[in-house]
Amino acid sequence: MNTKIIYIGVLIMLLSIASGCKSKKDIVSKFPKEFSISKEELKDKIRGGWAGQTIGVTYGGPTEFRFKGTMIQDYQDIIWHDHYIKETYELDPGLYDDVYLDLTFVNILEKVGLNASADAFALEFANEDYKLWHANQAARYNVLNGIMPPASGHWMNNPHADDIDFQIEADFIGLMSPGMINTSSDYCDRIGHIMNYGDGWYGGVFMSAMYTLAYTSNDLDFVINEALKTIPEQSLFYKTIADVIKWHKQYPNDWKQTWFEVEKNHSSEKGCPEGVFNSFNIDARLNAAYVIIGLLYGQKDFHKTMDISTRCGQDSDCNPATAAGILGVMDGYKNIPAFWKPALEEAEGLKFPYMDITLNQVYDLTYKHSLQLIEQNGGKIEGDKVHIKVQKPETVRFEESFVGMYPKEERYLRQHYTDKNINIDFTGNGIVVLGNVNSICSTTKSDYVALLDVYIDGEKVEQVKMPFDYIVRKYDIYHKYLLKEGKHHVEIKWVNKSPDFSIYMKSIVIYSDSQNKPLDTTKK
Asked: Which pTM value belongs to this model?
């Protein structure tokens, strides 16, 4: 009897082990060595990704940066109608910066080839005539003035290095790299350092990684967790997204509670001088958290996903664009609800704002580039079938921006200079002077470039060129990091003054090598 009981116990244990092995095998099977897809399904997923991006950015457009540090309340309607995308193309073309940058890079791949250099991408985007902001505009200025990638995106040369810019224009990389997550990271390294570094770069790596995985899996948890493996665990970007995943498990039915946790723990801005000491936050990792909140709580519902990512606030057009783009790849265009398609399909044949290319043409180009990449990376195309060599995620190198820099003080000045030099005394180890060239005579077009000689502690360190032209403008008047901690004097001399222009100094942000201490009220 005892022998029989032991035998049954051993049998149960063996069955349990076998069951456990099967479970592990199922997990491993999510990363098969090869993934096969029909050409039509591949085309449909590519169209779904571009469509989701375009629908999402249009949906969130009217709320962009109107809600900073606060969510958009449920009672606030967000409009949509069957002509909305075409209408927005015409009335607000600058809204689509997170798509027309993608299209610029797609064009370079077509003109130069898949091995196009970082310089080729940088020169093309720097010389385009569309509007740019933050890290993109700072990088454009750098490139046009001889600072090429990766220096153009490094935080010592770009105060906006951690901003969202590359995060919102890396979609095209993931879209053309189905199942090839490390190939995607390689392109991100080449292109993302044009305008970003550190957490700003990681935003693009992470988002494009999710796109690549969305081709091979419809399990959102798997896609998000595996994509996060590309990001170094010691980075703030990784910790932010890992916390969102943790809080989603803790509060599975309350996205607003997770949003509050993100605000409490991850909303502190350090880099962007417009966001420091302000509720404005264009940091990549915070807005990436909003993308993940939308994906996790949206539960693969197209509208719910966009709506939650939008209602998280801040960059509330770009975040739903990314979330909807990833979902569009995962489910394919055919499964995007019919409600959204009339507006998209009306615009598919129109030239995209600032571009000589339509969405229909972009679908074809991405499909073409995708097939080329698949073959380059060991895949095969046989008749109607595409066989992809699936890559397991590898972690990219660790980078960190603004090391040894802590925001210390902001002076909001709003001063116009016509005759006097700008003189600033401060104590710390870094400074950013925000401002631009203004027209006194209401000129809107001019090739005038102000020349500003910058002196630090009496020594001339640089001559800054400040174009009046908005397209090629210098985003901030001047910045300098990692000075020796202590008292410093900055003098800015305008050497080619013009009676038609003034130098407008908006504000100053000062940094220190240590954090500000709370007020000690115990002292008398």
From this structure: 0.93
